[in-house]
Structure formats: C-alpha cells, structure tokens
C-alpha cells in the first residue's frame, strides 16, 4: 500500500474524502504505526529487516579522528545493529559495544579496559565514541575506519503524500538503472527482472518488484 492510499482511506472513513481536514492526522497515525511495528520486530528474538528495507542502512568508513568521536546526527539513527571493522582492511582487531554505565567502571578495573586488539564503542546521544588501549593499540583512531549496520528513525519527512506511480519509501521512482554497480547499504527495487540476470549475490531475489538492501556492488549477471 502507498502512503496516499492509507491516508485517503483513513480520511474518507472520517468523512474527509477531499483530505482537507484529516490528511496530516492520517499520515501521523500511519507513521506511528510503522514505528511501533518496527520496534516490536526489533525487540523480537528474530527480527526480519526485510519488512522495512528502506530503513535498514549501512554507514561505511566511520571516521573517529576528531577527538575519538563520530557524529551521527545526519544519519538519524534509531537503533544500532552492529559495528565492525572495514572488511577490506587486513588488520586484526575487534569491536565491543558497551553501555555508558559500563564505561565508568573501566577506570577502576584493568580487566575491563580494552586490549591492544580491541576497540570499545559507546553511544552518547548522536555521538559514537571509541576507546582504545593506552599502550599499543592495533586500531589507529587517526586513520582506521569502522562500518555500522543500523536502523534509521521513522520520520514524517521521509513520507510524501503523492499519487505518482511507485511503491517505494517516498512513493516516487528513483533513478532507473540497467547496468553498472550498486552502493552497499542502499535500497533498490528489481522492477523488471530479465531472465539470465542474477542479483542473489548482492541481496536481491530474482523476481519482479523486489526491494532489497544491497550487500555488494557487483551482481553476478546484469546484462
């Protein structure tokens, strides 16, 4: 269902067939319903991100060179799913995500402090902060980067009340592609699958009108 359909249905049932009085209220309820459904799914034992692919994102190469901080304000992060090293870099270190309440304890307990191969990451508001070993850390804050797998916040400004064709997040078509490379973490729709092509290696399913978040850049076959 497109947003315009949902809003029209809600407003019509309230006696506002022309969307004069209740369109904005209908949109507010619709977006809040999406938020609650997403929260329930994320809090479940086995969340299914394919239900809301446009909100599932990957931020590549987070830069902590400024005071060990990466600011996430432009990403509008709802929930962080995973933080991990740049897969293309051959360096041995691992990431441990901690709550702020755990950070204070590290000052009094050496066993809780990061080893040379460990990075501790914690969130305060829209800032992600890293702590590395004070001796000889493998992770170089000034140059090394991290990846973040996350769910974006559900906001009204991501939805448009429009009757144009399409069924994606904004109910508008994006750029039509027939070849080239994809961007990891971006959402794509396989609008018209052509037999012989294969998008399964980049997160797609080889059927018409399938939405997916790209997990790679180069489909097996796209000719």
Write the layout of secondary structure elements.
Layout: H1 3-13, H2 23-42, E1 56-63, E2 69-71, E3 77-85, E4 94-97, H3 100-106, E5 118-124, E6 127-132, E7 145-152, E8 187-190, E9 210-213
Parallel strand pairs: 4-5
Antiparallel strand pairs: 1-7, 2-6, 3-7, 5-6, 8-9
Helix pairs in contact: 1-2
Describe what you observe in this structure.
- By secondary structure, the protein is of the alpha+beta class.
- The protein contains 3 helices and 9 strands.
- Strands 2-6-5-4 form a 4-stranded mixed β-sheet, with no helix packed on it.
- Strand 5 and strand 6 form a beta hairpin.
- The longest helix has 20 residues.
- The chain is flat and about 65 Å long.
In summary, what is this structure?
The protein has 223 residues and is an alpha+beta fold. Helices cover 17% and strands 24% of the residues. A 4-stranded mixed beta sheet has the order 2-6-5-4, with no helix packed on it. A 3-stranded antiparallel beta sheet has the order 1-7-3, with no helix packed on it. A two-stranded antiparallel ribbon has the order 8-9.
Give descriptors for this structure.
223 residues; alpha+beta; 17% helix
Strand order, sheet with most strands: 2-6-5-4
Low-pLDDT runs: 163-172
Mean pLDDT, to the nearest integer, reads 86
Oligomeric category: single chain
Number of helices: 3
Radius of gyration: 21 Å
Q: Helix/strand-derived class?
A: alpha+beta
List the secondary-structure elements in sequence, H or E: HHEEEEHEEEEE
Strand segment tally: 9
Shape: flat
Strand count, sense and barrel status of the largest sheet are: 4 strands, mixed
Give the termini distance in whole angstroms. 31 Å
Could you tell me the strand content as a percent range?
15-25%
How much helicity do the residues have?
10-25%
